[in-house]
Amino acid sequence: MSSSSTTPRSRRPSGTRKRRGGRRGVIRRVLLWITGLGLLAVLLAVGVFAWAYARTDVPEPNDFAEAQSSILYYADGETELARFTGGYDRESVPLSEVPEHVRYAMLSAEDRSFYENEGVSVTGTARGAWRTLTGDGLQGGSTITQQYVKNYYLTADQTLQRKFTEIIIAIKIDNELAKDEVLENYLNTIYFGRGAYGIQTASRAYFDKDVSELDVEEGAFLTGVTNAPSLFDPDYAEGNDERAQERVAYILDGMVEEGWLDASERDGLGLPEIQEPQPSTAAQGVEGYIAQEARDELKEVLGVDDAEIDGGGLRVTTTIEQDHQEAAAEAVELYRPTGEGTDDITVALTSVRPGDGAVTAMYGGEDYQETQLNAATDAQVQAGSLFKPVTLLAAVQEGVDTLQTFEGPTPMSFGDTGDLEVNNFRDLSFGVIDLRIALAESVNTIYVQLNEQIGPEATRQAAVDLGLPEDTPGLDTDLTNVLGTASPTLLQMTNAYATIAAEGERATPYLVTRVETVAGDTTYEAEPETTQAVDRDAAVDVTDAMTYVVEQGSGMSAGELGRPAAGKSGTSERNVSAWFDGFVPQLAAGVVMYKGDGTVPMQDVAGIDQITGGTFPAQVWGEFMRQAMEGEEIQEFSPRVGTSGPTGTPAPTTQAPAPEPTTSEETTEPTETTSEEPTETTSEEPTETTSEEPTTTEPTESSPAPTTPAPTSPAPTPTSPDPTEGSSPSPTG
């Protein structure tokens, strides 16, 4: 019997297929949701980006990016004298002046896909963002365009927000500017180390050459050092030399890989020779004093502020003539006092064009970094006998003839009660001599007599007319003001003598002659300010008298200039200051020396007992004049006019008999100075006046002989200054 009962067929549980289908449906739905959310996120990101792109304007360049150093030039308008950096040094150049191999070196170093990318690097940006999120700081991954945006428009803040803004602006810039324009701006913005921003300034900082002259090796180094100047500048730290070699090799190899440099040219190339770091700020050395004066003048005359001077890219042509400035430095170096007791002696020199006011040289000290007091423009020290020509000018304007004669006994008493006693140098008395010889001999008693005759108020007024400020310390109406109790600055006194040289035409000294913008637009041109301040004929006659100083007085130590010259030495009481000021028709110059703060006597120093105006100052002045005037036309002074005024001999107030000497204040120089003079000097150096004692020989044919000649017998060598009344104020700023 067949079995009617069979084993039931196994059946799949009901709903199993449905459950499996449901699971697949859930997965499908999840995937759809994820895809949808992803698309939504992408759309949202695109929307946010589009919104941000639309709302983000390219900002104005930040102040720092546009800042350029202001450059001072010598009078030729081309040779750089100094520059104002304000803490950064930049000079922009067009891309056309940057050699092609230097441009490719920068691309090899920083962004080899620069001309192909859209201004950003996705992978690089992501890498930089990851480093930021992991705490390594925002670094790396930027294209040249992004770096340009960061430096030119933004800040160096390391935040994701700044990075996002950088990307937006970089893309926008890439769409709006040509690649070459971006590269040009980048090269003029990036920091190269050594205080240099921009390829041009960096080229000068590392190689002392214009960017257009860079070779392949130099270009590779400069473009590589931007990555981290502290790591790749060989002079910054030990070990940098090796790192710099590797960096240069990386850049050169990259140029070969990209087809920007032939492999044959690559062979043998490596790290170039790099100069040692040089000072890049204007406030350095002797030039620092000129730069500071120019800064002050720019602020006063143009009304610009420090920010514009430091970062406005001004191109400033000064009145300083390079050969004059070099002559000043050489003259000071050659004849400055040396030896025991001279460490704190300050020497200053300046020169001015008569009738114009242009300052052609300024030596205000050895190094502005060491002391900021400009000894040519700020130090105020007693002028001593430099004031005797001032009194003579006042007298000639009142009708006194330079041929008027006086007796010069010593001592002499002055004043209503006779309580003012004046002595001559070395207590030496003179016979009857005229005012020209008395100026050459610097006879105190004669010039005090003259001052008493015209009134000291006239001397004070003449000083003001010549250009000294009315508030000059010590410029009063005492009878002894003729002996130089006033304390002007060197520039003020030099300009006063320049007024005499210009036959009475006074000019306002100036240092800035032209100012231009970076674009070459002239914004300022100086116009000399002049006025006929004193009588022309009086100035001519005083000039004639001052030639006697150079030809037979204390100015003889200046040496032979080979052209007509006039001047006067000056030494204050106790030798706290010593001057020589003088001029040729085309140029006036002055020299001053003082010790310490200007109150310390210059006695028993430099191998001589006392420094006077006729010693080192006259020698410095003579050397400067010889060099500065080399090759210039020899001009003559106008002949003496004469006033037809009194030429007799007024009776002295009080006379004490004494031998008649032939020497004067500082007429013959201490023979000890011979050992201080460089042995290599030529016959043009200042001569030893011990063998050239003053005589009564007339210096020019146009000058009549004095009524009573000065004695010509040998005289002792003077080594002390004229005694003067009054205090010796310290140099003040």
Question: Can you walk through the features of this model?
Answer:
The chain has 733 residues and is α+β, with helices and mostly antiparallel strands. The protein is 36% helix and 13% strand. It has 22 helices and 21 strands. α16 (388-397) packs antiparallel against α21. The longest helix has 40 residues, at 16-55. The chain is elongated, with a radius of gyration of 39 Å. The termini are far apart.
Tell me briefly what this model is:
By secondary structure, the protein is α+β, with helices and mostly antiparallel strands.
Features:
733 residues; 36% helix; disordered N terminus; disordered C terminus
Topology diagram in text:
Layout (H helix, E strand, L loop, with lengths): L15 H40 L7 H4 L3 E4 L6 E5 L4 E2 L9 H11 L11 H12 L10 H9 L7 H17 L2 H9 L3 E3 L2 E2 L1 H9 L8 H10 L3 H4 L7 H18 L5 H4 L20 H16 L3 H6 L3 E4 L3 H14 L9 E8 L6 E5 L24 H10 L7 E4 L3 E3 L5 E3 L7 E5 H7 L2 H11 L1 H11 L23 H12 L3 E3 L4 E5 L5 E4 L4 E3 L3 H17 L13 E6 L5 E8 L2 E9 L7 E3 L2 E3 L5 H13 L105
Helix pairs in contact: 3-9, 3-11, 5-6, 5-7, 9-11, 15-22, 16-18, 16-19, 16-21, 17-21
Q: Please mark out the parts with pLDDT under 50 across 5 or more consecutive residues, or reply none.
A: 1-18, 136-140, 154-158, 656-733
Gap between N and C termini, in Å? 141 Å
What does the main sheet amount to? Answer: 5 strands, mixed
Separate helix tally: 22
- Give the structural class: alpha+beta
Computed CA radius of gyration, to the nearest angstrom: 39 Å
What strand line-up does the widest sheet have?
Answer: 2-1-6-14-15
> What is the average of the pLDDT values?
81
* Counted beta strands: 21
Tell me the fraction of residues in β-strands, as a range: 5-15%
Using the alpha-carbon principal axes, give the shape: elongated
Share in helix: 25-40%
